[in-house]
Amino acid sequence: MYILRDEYKMTKNQLLKYIKGEATKEEELKIVEWANESPDNKEYLKSLNNLWLSQNIPSTQASEREMDMVRKITEEKKVVYWKSVLSGKTIRYAAAILVFLLVGSNLFLLNRLNLSSNEDERVLLSQIPQESVITVYTNKGVKSSVILPDSSQVWMNSDSKISYPAKFTGSTREIMVSGEVYFEVQKDNSRPMIVSTNKNFQIEVLGTKFNLKAYDDEKDAVATLYTGEIRIRTDISGSTESKEVLMKPMETVRIENNNIINLVKPRDTSTNIAWKDGILVFDNTPIYEVIKKIERWHGSMFIVRDSSVLNYRITATFNSESAIQIMEMIRYTSPVDYSIQDNTIIISKR
Asked: What DSSP letter does each residue of 285-334 carry, written as one string?
C-alpha cells in the first residue's frame, strides 16, 4: 500500500483524478508543477499510477484511438521491439498494452507530464491556479520593487498592481499590470514576456527596459522604451481588427480607447521614469494631472471647489517636499489657491 506523505502537499484523490484523465486543465497544471518540483514527487506519481493500473486492467480490446496513441508514444520513445510485439494478436488487448507501457515504463504518464508542461504552448495567467499566482500591490504614497521568477526586475510606482506566476510555464512569460511600472526584462528569445493591462492592449517584450503607465482610472496609457524593442498590440479582445506598433529606443507611445494615438521621440524621456528615483516632475502638466500625481505620491485627498483651475499648467520638479510644500509652490506661481480641512486639500481659484 502506498501512503501519501504530508510533504507532498497533494491528496491521493487529486492525483488519481489526473491519472484517470478526469482532472480539469487547472488541476492538471497544478499537478504537473508539483510533479516536476522533485524526483520524489514524480516517482510517487508513477508508483500510484502503476498501482491504479494493476487494479484496473481492462479485458477488452484497445480502440483504434488507443492504438494510435501507443504507436505515437512508442515511436517517440524509440521502443525497438514495438514492431514485433505489435504483430501479435494480443496487442489488441488493452491489458497487454497497459502492463507493457504503463506498469513497465510509465511512458504514457511521462508523456502526459511532458505534454502538460509543453514549452511550445502559451499558458495564460488566467489558466494558472490562483494559489500559484503572485499579486503585489503598492498603496498610495508607497513605492516598491519586485524580482520576477526569470530574474527580471520591476519597479512599481504608487497605487499600482502586478500579477505574475510563481514560475513561468509555457511559451511566454505572462504578466498583468495596473498602474505605473518600470521593467528591466531579462532577454529570452524563445520565451517573450507578455505584459497585459485592463485597457485591452498588450506589450510583447524580449529583453529591454521600458516604462508603462496604465492606471485603470485614467483614459489613456503611456509607454516609453529605453533599450531594446517592444511590440504593442491593441484591440486584443477581438471585437475589432488588431493594431500593433513596433517601438524603438527613446520612443514614447500614447494609447487611448484601444487606439495608438501617437508615437513620438521626445527631447527628454528621463522625466517619465524620474519617479523611480523619488523625483516628482511636472512638465507643463495641467492641474487635474498634478492632483492625481500628488494623491498617489503622498496619499493625499483633494476636493476641487472651482473646476476652472483644472486646466492651469505647472512646470516644476520636487524631491522630498510634502504635499503642503508642493501646494505652496503652486499657489505662489499660479492663480490656484488651497486650504486644508480634516486632512483634505481643498482646491479653489484665488
From this structure: EEHHHHHHHHHHHH--EEEES-GGGGG-EEEEEESS--HHHHHHHHHHHS
